[in-house]
Amino acid sequence: MVDAAKLQQVKDRTWFYEFDLPDGTRTATDIPADVLPIHTSRRDKLAWIIQNRVPDAQDLTAFDLASHEGYYSLELARHFKSVRGYEIRKSSRDAARLITDVIGAPNIDYVEADLQTMAFDPAQTADFVLLYGLIYHLENPVHTIRLASQMARKHILIETQVFPYDISGQLEDGHYKHMRPIEGVFGLAPDYAARREGGSTDIAVVPSLNALLFLLRNFGFSEVFVLPSGDDDYEQFRRGSHVVVYGGKP
Questions:
Q1: How does pLDDT run across 236-250, given as a tens digit for each residue?
Q2: Torsion sign over Cα 182, 188, 226, 47
Q3: Domain assignments of the chain as residue spans, ordered by start
Q4: Closest Cα partner for 51 from 207, 211, 227, 229?
Q5: Is the pTM of this model over 0.90?
């Protein structure tokens, strides 16, 4: 039975996401209507990957890195045996625990973590790792992508904004006859640590798509591909400004 007091707490709060509530209503949100479809596009791509790449999900574990208010943790919980959300902000963790309790998903727990500084712990691994909406808010994205890759025993799914140009070529390495290949670039941009959707610093380093694909292959994923976008996807996915990338280990 839904706790009426907690349900009212949910209804009194303004959320980043639209959650479907047990009484048939939805949470209030201040996200513009033309931006909200990014959440459902991300969710639908996650569900598609689980269906097509993780048929045994009900017997497996999943991590949601940068779990925010728990929107995608709840989607993972519908498919996986257990889910853990990692989130730096206490306000977001508290909100996630509240909505998870009201909706009813006992197979999720949430823990505090700064994914820009967190060290890899071999005891903290999962079959499936989700990393949605974070990389383009990070000052040190390579560390976080490496960490997520180490935590993923089999599958990873990343959603991120990407630098708009793939750059390749040669880079001198100590002498003009010694060259290294350029596998991608990163764009430097300001971020907003004070806002609920920002990173932990006010600097973001955003990867190009080929940089992200190179890193995933370098970090142990033998199967790496960008999910296709359809006509009903959020406009940033259709234009390639945001991408969802899957990586699978042997």
A1: 999 999 999 999 999
A2: positive
A3: 4-248
A4: 227
A5: yes
